[in-house]
Design a protein that fits this description.
There is one protein chain. The protein has 18 helices and no strands. By secondary structure, it is an all-alpha fold. It has a single domain, classed as Up-down Bundle (Growth Hormone, Chain: A). Helix 11 runs antiparallel to helix 18 and helix 12 crosses helix 14. The longest helix is centred in the last third of the chain and has 37 residues.
């Protein structure tokens, strides 16, 4: 037998998948994602300050996050293709340089236009992190641990959000705009050094797996073939719609509109609002671990968990928006706890796409899935801002836009669910038949 272990627990060069070295290398990738999330969500605790600093209304304020997410969503397929072609390390290095530069430029922004450009640059770098971390996990850990590894990666990403709500908000109040955002950019420089020194794409080497790069005569149609092949899989499309439907209510709340809603519509102090945003993050982290464990053991639970999360989220929002006057604290606590399930539920989308695509197409498929939630978030951010301006800051009407996108997504999930399940079952049967006929 050759020196390469191709067993489920082995990796190239005889390195066992899932060992201490895998945890170390993957942890570096997760640290990059943690940093990107910290930068991405930093505006969520600075929305009121940004409106005062740049003298803008609700629609203009929402444009910050919309532009950032527009760039992020638009980059998902190109990033997926780059990860499949270049490997994880090169893409992460480029991403770190871009999002760190964007965060530092945002700190120095004295005009609305400059601040928009900085957030766009940040969104571009941010777009390169999560797909890279997903691929890194799939290369360093056994496939059966995929759902849990993805949820744990998301958990550490939410820890970046926790830093935003607990630390950055207080630093901003104490030291002001420029020192806070400029100082946070130092974290990007630190993770760049770690990636350059220690990160490897896969066990046994730093480059992409042999055979993933197309031959010169095939490069002309590489992008088209990758996209077409990934999109043909019902599991990829189902994953995209699961991500679309589950992620955006929590994302919109944390990214921008949660703080203004809690302060201006619900009459909470900024400290109380910050604590409620922190609750969303903490709930996300706990629920993510639960979802990851359940799905790793019971694959059939994926769709019920996703649809159940959508239903409970809609019910929680309906309760808050229909409550006469301002909702009591316990109702807001329930809402924020439920919103914490949105992120973990969106990760289920990748669990549909992963078994539907071979390793050389994982980046592309993940990019397609990741477009879903960020497209929905972008649309909702815009809708809430426009409706607030049109209705004189009526948050009930503005947040009712959540139900429209949830309804659209549920219809698509129900339409694709059976088709994806049948296709996945066919692939499992085919792989078992192939394994039986492999000579030993």
């Amino acid at each position: 037998m050759s020196g390469t272990d191709t067993s489920p627990s082995g990796g190239a060069g005889g390195v066992r998948l899932g060992g201490p070295r895998a945890a170390f290398v993957w942890g570096i990738g997760v640290a990059v994602y943690f940093t990107a999330i910290t930068y991405r969500t930093s505006l969520g605790v600075a929305g009121i300050d940004a409106a005062e600093r740049f003298h803008i209304n609700a629609s203009a304020l929402s444009t910050f996050s919309i532009l950032q997410l527009l760039v992020y969503a638009g980059m998902q397929i190109p990033v997926g293709l780059l990860v499949d072609r270049w490997g994880t390390k090169k893409v992460l290095i480029l991403g770190i340089v871009l999002f760190t530069t964007g965060q530092f430029a945002f700190a120095l922004s004295g005009s609305y236009a400059m601040a928009l450009a900085a957030r766009a640059l940040l969104g571009c770098g941010d777009a390169m992190t999560f797909i890279s971390v997903l691929r890194l996990g799939s290369r360093w850990f056994p496939p059966r641990r995929g759902p849990l590894i993805a949820q744990v990666a998301a958990l550490f990403g939410m820890a970046g959000n926790l830093v935003t709500t607990l630390v950055l908000a207080r630093v901003l109040a104490a030291f002001g705009w420029t020192p806070t955002f400029a100082g946070s950019a130092a974290l990007g420089a630190l993770v760049l050094v770690l990636v350059l020194l220690f990160l490897k794409d896969r066990p046994g080497g730093a480059g992409p797996e042999p055979g993933t790069a197309p031959a010169p005569q095939q490069r002309g149609g590489y992008v088209r073939r990758q996209l077409a092949a990934a999109w043909r899989e019902p599991g990829t499309r189902l994953g995209m719609w699961v991500h679309f439907t589950t992620q955006f209510p929590g994302m919109v709340f944390l990214l921008l509109w949660g703080m203004p809603f809690l302060v201006e519509a619900q009459g909470r102090s900024r400290a109380e609002a910050g604590n409620l945003l922190t609750l969303v993050v903490l709930a996300n982290m706990v629920i993510g671990l639960v979802y990851g464990q359940v799905i790793a053991r019971h694959h059939a639970a994926r769709a019920p968990i996703a649809l159940g999360t959508v239903l409970v989220t809609a019910a929680a929002w309906a309760t808050v928006l229909a409550w006469p006057g301002r909702a009591p604290l316990w109702v807001l606590v329930v809402l924020c706890t439920v919103l914490g399930a949105c992120g973990p539920a969106s990760m289920i989308g990748f669990d549909f796409a992963r078994p539907a695509n071979p390793p050389e197409r994982q980046g592309t498929a993940s990019g397609i899935v990741n477009i879903g939630g960020f497209t929905a978030s972008m649309a909702t951010l815009l809708a809430v801002g426009v409706l607030l301006d049109a209705t004189g800051d009526d948050y009930r009407i503005a947040f009712a836009s959540v139900f429209v996108l949830q309804a659209l997504g549920v219809v698509q999930i129900l339409r694709l669910r059976g088709r994806a399940h049948r296709r996945e079952r066919e692939r499992v049967v085919a792989s078992r038949v192939e394994a039986v006929h492999v000579p030993v």
